[in-house]
Amino acid sequence: MDELSNHKLLVYGGGAAAPTDHVNMLLHLGAKLYEVREPFIQLPSAFGLLECVRAGMGIALVADYIARDYDDLIPLFPDISHPVSEMIMAYPKELIGTKRIEAFLDFIRKEAAKLK
To answer: Per-residue confidence of the chain (116 residues) as pLDDT tens digits?
Structure first.
């Protein structure tokens, strides 16, 4: 993991609020205490990071639900567990219990179960 310092690291940023606290853990992973690596690129888009990785521009942390659809990505640290992020769904109060919302929730539950 200390070899990460020798690679171009692509991270979430560019003025956008991070979707999770651990989204840029590559900057700290395996580094010395209080050391923060300098990112090569900061982008405000998970899909932008994905495309940069696929173009060979560097290494990035890509969410499982995104990475699973791309056979050309190589997992670098498969034995390292990463924090789980909470998902919150917000919708207007008047839609509570509607078939449309229930169908969407069922879909999300099925997709989330595939990630386990």
So the answer is: 667 788 899 988 866 666 666 677 788 777 777 778 889 999 988 899 999 999 999 999 888 778 888 999 988 877 877 666 677 788 899 999 999 999 999 998 888 787 66
Question: How many CA atoms lie within 13 Å of 15's alpha carbon, on the beta-carbon side?
Answer: 0
Structure tokens at 29: 């992973």
Task: Identify the residue whose tokens are 């929730």.
Answer: 105
Domain match, 6 and 59 both: yes
Burial tier of 24 (Cβ tally within 10 Å: 0-12, 13-18, 19+)? buried
Domain span holding position 92: 86-116
- The CA distance from 64 to 68, in Å, is 6
**Cα 104 versus chain centre, distance:** 22
Q: CA dist 67 to 3, 47, 48, 90, Å?
A: 22, 10, 13, 25
